[in-house]
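Cont'd.
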Amino acid sequence: SQQGEEDPQALSIQEGENATMNCSYKTSINNLQWYRQNSGRGLVHLILIRSNEREKHSGRLRVTLDTSKKSSSLLITASRAADTASYFCAGTTFWGADGLTFGKGTHLIIQP
Amino acid sequence: DGGITQSPKYLFRKEGQNVTLSCEQNLNHDAMYWYRQDPGQGLRLIYYSQIVNDFQKGDIAEGYSVSREKKESFPLTVTSAQKNPTAFYLCASSISGTGAAYEQYFGPGTRLTVT
């Protein structure tokens, strides 16, 4: 697996605004995944983007992947209070069934 | 309902005691994983299993042991050799244990406190 490093570490925005968080990784990946964790809970899978994809959408989520820069971004549009959570990324190689390696995450706070 | 369950939600133990955390899934997934999370940190991989009767060490396996006798069960034992066992433990599963990576499904976690 490939560790992702999320940036910023924390982000606070007003409800209704868009939130963007970034992820960088070090070596080649087959795909990159984003997860959300609400306080004290397990992680929930949000989206998986493959190395041959540049952009992917799922509801209010938009993920981009730039393999030349080894980076990805997660955009949450029209944020809601329920989006308050920590967000983690993890890249995987083709034989990626050996577990995911996560960074410290971006802690997103949506102010009402 | 399909899903992955962990029990108990909170666990308190005295130092020097072994403790076993339960993880069960009814998703018919081949692969299962154990992670540890410390406050303000990401998850670190303890052990993973790609198929029944087989498991591999992750990044921080020292002081832990696992078994995978059944497809749906992957218990984790925190032994007295683990120097800092107090943490939040998360179990996960995914469809396949080999080949391309798939999304992982996480349980609700067990918060272990050792005093």
